[in-house]
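Entry type: protein chain
Record version: 2
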Amino acid sequence: MSDTVAASDTTTLTQTAPPKRLNFFERYLSIWVLICMAVGVALGKLLPGTVAALSRLEFGQGSQVNIPIAVLIWLMIYPMMLKIDFGSLVGVTKRPKGLLITLFVNWLVKPFSMAFFAWLFLQHVFAAWIDPETARNYTAGLIILAAAPCTAMVFVWSYLTDGDPAYTLVQVAVNDLIMLFAFAPIVMFLCGVANVVVPSKVLITSVVVFIVIPLAAGYLTRTLLLKSHGREWFEKNFLPKFHPVTVVALLATLVLIFAFQAENLTTKWFAVILLAVPILVQVYFNSSLAYGLMRLFKVPHNVASPGALIGASNFFELAVAVAITLFGPGSPAALACVVSVLVEVPVMLSVCKLCNATRAWYQRGAQAGA
């Protein structure tokens, strides 16, 4: 009975929003991603000075949070925050299975599975092309990456899969709290690196920039417009206007990311290809594991999809900063974290597509015997 009620409560949170239909941009999103990659690399090579100046724009020296990227991510996250019914946050504690599965995959599976995949591919399968010391450094970088669950972009993935915005917020917030004390010990244990220092400025700045600010803006906008125009106008007239903004901001973010990394892409392309393999395996392994467990335990799809995406993506800003702090900006470990920036967005879009395509299959299994 409780599972049925939980599913009903979760469905209520999003039932007012019409099911997403693939528009022109979404239908050909893979093509747009490839175009953005090409445009970004071209800009990085043709206008290196301009791109370098943009990459140096940060929220304070050493924060590793780029202002242009942050603004674009705000444009992606803000619509998600507008959808959050803050009164429903308390209800998450009554249906904790999705949160518990997310935490299990993020903290008890993901760092250790990445350590295994990195060891397998970089130190054994690709041993003919990578010297042992470089392979160990690459492995350390990927472990650092996997020990930092994603924050900001999860809201975008959740939006694209019709995720429950309130539940997604709780999943991300709890992960951030755990990261404060679990990140360093996990990295120390798996990497064998003593005196791991988590750059608190990077972590705090990222949480404030990517969660607190858009959350506050969304809350204020939602509260004021619900009072002045009513719920029906807000949900049917105001919210739909932001969908094209989200898509355009996502594509612009891709252009910038690939522009910033154009040099790595063109000069270290073989290393990028090799590093992409364990990252890809890790993403699909963890997202499938989380998604399957959610279905097994009959968690609603609008909680399971964001949970699967949280389990597969990474907080690459923090990972890059830690790798640079420990091994240096030109180190193999730092490059391994940078490759995640290149791979993650296109791959996570494919996971979003899979979650949407398997919605009917998922719901049949989740409802069976409920």
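Comment: The chain is about 80% helix and 0% strand.
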